[in-house]
Amino acid sequence: MKAQRVEVFVCPSATPADTSGLQALADAGKIKPDTLVALVGKTEGTGAHDDWGRVWADVALREWTGKFLGVPADEVAKHVIFVLSGGCPGVITPHIAAVTREWIEVPDLGSDKRLVVGRAGSDPMPPEEVGRMGQIRKVATATQAAMDDAGLSDPKDVHLVMVKVPGLTTASIKDAESRGKTVVSHDLTFGPEGAGVYANDAAALGVAMALGEVPEALLSDAVVRRNWDLYSEVAMTSSGGEKRHGEVVVFGNSNASRSNLRIGHAVTRDFIDADGVRNALRSAGLHFTDGLPDEKDLASRLVHVFAKSVIPGSDQIRGQRITLLDDADAYQIGKALGGMLVASVTGRTTNYVSGGERNSHQGPPGGNIVAAVVRTEA
Q: Is residue 113 within 8 Å of residue 253, measured between CB atoms?
């Protein structure tokens, strides 16, 4: 009988092209060509559609990974999933998290559920599908395939689904229109009607469809970024013009695991909900003392935190007016607020915090998703 053993290694990055941390892991034998599943990280830059920092990082990482695996760079996506989120404002440290998985023979399965991971790529997503049902369905199919790869059948065991999908660019819009097709938006920003947020939210609804959080019958082009009652509590999505396919990584807990890691998640209700972050740590199994996470646990057992930081559609937080919606730099400030919230609880800045868009199907209205990976005690 086979079981998974998953590890997560977090490498701070000095520049978008810094692969020295990964090379050190490879030299130490901690990551191997046949165990590397995904590279997930934050890259410095604007985070916008023209964020060359993210593109630079993607190129450098694919080149390094291709050499590490012994395959051409353009074949890396067949072996390793890349999820890179651009923009590290405030106290978010640029970093790459390497996720590894090996299969081991075990005499029987235990009763304790621990971390498993699964990956899958989607079929190509042409620009006319971005932000629409075509993208939703393809992400849903890839999410189900990633669950199957992880050995997960119960959606309740899924605590995080990370997705990177194609966005729109000037060139891809021209391509679609040259073929007589339309696109969801000509706005290439991450504003309320921008193509980037449509791509992110269609991907989130694809996850919700796969996990049964939203029935397919309720989904259509018309509900994307319109019906905020439809959402996923475990989807963290981002988009980029450099992508042509969707890439999905599913994290969950299973008794078919011999990992010494466990994952949990929770949802914050607003930008100042530190308890929501703590609840994610509790869900993953950290100890708490007097309502606060144990300092020794934070130092020795907390491995990584993944969080969204979406700007709410309202100018009210707990009954008080805020001016964030009127701020020209709201996109960056939104990410910075999320980074600060998570760091204030974890005491570290190497947290994956993606967001900045206004409203999202990633989490309930006003709330944000937080997932934590911790090391088990045994």
A: yes
Catalytic residue among 13, 42, 122, 164: 164
CB 166 within 8 A of CB 130: yes
Is 211 in the same domain as 183?
yes
For residue 63, what is the domain's CATH number? 3.30.1330.170
- Separation of first and last alpha carbons in the chain: 22
- Render pLDDT for 336-352 as a digit per residue (tens, 0 to 9): 999 999 999 999 999 99
- The domain total for the chain is 3
Q: Which domain holds residue 196?
A: 116-251
Active site residue 164: yes
Which one is catalytic: 13, 85, 185, 238? 238
Active-site residue 335, yes or no? no
Nearest residue to 135 (alpha-carbon basis) of 205, 51, 232, 85 = 205
**Token pair belonging to 278:** 């703590």
Residues forming a β-bridge with 238: 164
In angstroms, rounded to a whole number, what is the distance separating the alpha carbons of residues 246 and 362? Answer: 17
61 to each of 47, 67, 136, 273, how far by Cα in Å?
A: 18, 10, 28, 35
Per-residue pLDDT reduced to its tens digit, 173-217: 999 999 999 999 998 877 778 888 999 999 999 999 999 999 999
